């Protein structure tokens, strides 16, 4: 209920109303109130699942993050990760002790946290200086401590589950209707109207599914807006752990260009201007200073 999350709270309320009426009308619920309660129930179930370990697994799959397979990579990064996790938990005990590390194959230097127990790094971050890796991980621990990461699960995974349920049930119903139409034709009855109605309903379902996908994207954009506002707090968390200068150095190395696509790109590109973040860290007490001019 933080002020920075206000746009997303509004989205979630609208989402509940829309899902309630859409699902109610599609499943021929006569009462508007019953339709709303039905949609609310379905959405509530999806949110519970989204905030579970299964929800985190879905998001990891969507963003291409998996268990680190190479032993040399694991041997290098795991001790660094455990060191930062221990330090973060001493500062804020609300961070779970069993946070797990995963990796995406992007060659850019970045990372993101999600849910309650997931931190995902890019493969490219392995080539960064060790202190910068620690700074990045401590920043992500800040997101876990502040519960910012739950928002991503609520929207992207919650809506994914609702959309999946909707499509699965409707497609099954349309398939059965289509098969009954074919059976009517083969039995010498007039099944053409039934086939036409099934095709029309199928097209409507596809359009509605696409609209739900677009609506989910809007929700993720709102998450990103809230995330940008929360980045400064996560930076402050990293500063408090002693990684302020390393984080400034890492931020200053960003060029602003990105080749990463998809959900993972949305997650890692949800940050405010790097100079604003560096300035905020300097105001906190970071002593980092870049040398300018030709040497």
UniProtKB/TrEMBL annotation:
The record's cofactor note says:
Binds 1 zinc ion per subunit.
As given in the record, the signal peptide range reads none
Q: Which cofactor(s) are needed, names only?
A: Zn(2+)
Could you tell me which residue ranges the Peptidase M48 domain spans?
A: 84-282
User: Gene3D superfamilies from the entry?
Assistant: Metalloproteases ('zincins'), catalytic domain
Q: Which CDD domains match?
A: M48B_HtpX_like
Q: Does the keyword Repeat apply?
A: no
- The reply on keyword Cell membrane is yes
Q: Which domain of life is it from?
A: Archaea
- Spell out the molecular function terms from Gene Ontology: metal ion binding; metalloendopeptidase activity
**Which residue spans traverse the membrane?**
7-27, 33-54, 151-172, 192-215
Q: What is this protein called in UniProt?
A: Peptidase M48 domain-containing protein
Biological source species: Methanosarcina mazei (Methanosarcina frisia)
């Amino acid at each position: 209920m933080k002020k920075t999350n206000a746009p997303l709270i509004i989205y979630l309320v609208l989402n509940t109303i829309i899902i309630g009426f859409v699902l109610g009308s599609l499943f021929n619920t006569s009462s508007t109130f019953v339709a709303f309660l039905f949609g609310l129930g379905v959405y509530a179930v999806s949110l519970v699942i989204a905030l579970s370990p299964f929800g985190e697994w879905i998001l990891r799959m969507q963003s291409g993050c998996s268990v680190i397979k190479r032993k040399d990579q694991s041997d290098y990064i795991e001790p660094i990760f455990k060191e930062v996790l221990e330090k973060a938990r001493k500062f804020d005990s609300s961070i779970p002790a069993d946070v797990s590390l995963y990796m995406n194959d992007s060659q850019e230097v970045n990372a993101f946290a999600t849910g309650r127990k997931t931190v995902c790094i890019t493969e490219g971050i392995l080539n960064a200086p060790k202190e910068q890796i620690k700074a990045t991980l401590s920043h992500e621990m800040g997101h876990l401590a502040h519960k910012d990461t739950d928002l991503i699960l609520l929207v992207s995974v919650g809506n994914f589950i609702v959309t999946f349920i909707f499509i699965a049930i409707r497609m099954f119903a349309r398939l059965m209707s289509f098969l009954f139409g074919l059976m009517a034709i083969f039995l010498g009855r007039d099944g053409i109207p039934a086939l036409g109605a099934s095709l029309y309903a199928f097209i409507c379902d596809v359009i509605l599914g696409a609209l739900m996908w677009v609506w989910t994207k809007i929700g993720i954009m709102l998450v990103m807006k809230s995330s940008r506002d929360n980045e400064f707090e996560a930076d402050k968390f990293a500063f408090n752990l002693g990684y302020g200068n390393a984080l400034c150095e890492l931020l200053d190395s960003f060029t602003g260009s990105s080749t990463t696509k998809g959900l993972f790109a949305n997650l890692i590109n949800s940050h405010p201007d790097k100079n604003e973040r560096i300035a905020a860290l300097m105001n906190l007490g970071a002593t980092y200073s870049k040398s300018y001019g030709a040497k």
